[in-house]
Amino acid sequence: MTPLGTGLAIEPQLWALVFVMVRIGAAFIAAPVFGAMTMPVIVRVSLSGAIGVLVLGTHSIVPPAQIFALTTFLSVAAEALVGFALGFVLQIAFAAPMVASELIGTSMGIGFASAIDPQNGRSTPALGQFFSMLITLLFLAVNGHLVLVELIVKSYDALPPGAAWLGVDQVKNIALFGGYTFLAGLLLALPVGFLLLCLNLIVGMISRAAPSLNLFAVGMPASLAVGVVALALAMPAMGDYLLVIIDQALAAAGTLVLG
């Protein structure tokens, strides 16, 4: 056993593993699927440890010599920042279906229908839960979780410990990618939203032509029926665009760590 500068004796290999697990664990906390509320903490820690062993076997990681030192705290903070940034970029893309569900649900008249989302533990629209499960299944189907693990491992080449601070350009790219959430959400809701907008225009013209009609008794069921039919017809195209969103998110995460 090799004593460190603080007088605390710990196996050097164990300290190196814990140091490597900081970046991996931070990425898993912020990333979708791995960061879900339903994911047990023991599973997250076990995966972080297993990937940490892989990183130590393929990279020469030299952890800080002293545990309780300012340079060590700064190094740990830099490692956590890189991990959080990787997971946060993917989380930004996974928020796009929530934006689309708000637009579609409000137009259909089911915006009030909400429940607890098991992914994040917050109350979300029922349509948003459907889109969230759909993009999660597509993410797993295209092996997005394996691509995330590969990016984490490759990040130790591009951003080695000790030089892992994100630059201004990288932080700027994360902020600019946040605008993609609203663009993708709008494009995802466009097919169904356009049909519902046309329906609202028709109902508005009918209300002007025949003011005596009770449009509240007709408009709500019509909006709901048209919305359900439009969702069924547009689902193949929406599924393809969800794959585009996943591809853009993985590309942005790769650009973040690999340049």
TrEMBL record:
Entry annotated with the keyword DNA-binding: no
Cellular compartment(s): Cell membrane; Bacterial flagellum basal body
BP GO annotations: bacterial-type flagellum assembly; protein targeting
InterPro entries: FliR (IPR006303), T3SS_IM_R (IPR002010)
GO CC aspect terms: bacterial-type flagellum basal body; plasma membrane
Predominant location category: membrane
Superkingdom of origin: Bacteria
Family: Belongs to the FliR/MopE/SpaR family.
The protein's role, per its UniProt record: Role in flagellar biosynthesis.
Descriptive protein name: Flagellar biosynthetic protein FliR
Source organism: Sphingomonas aracearum
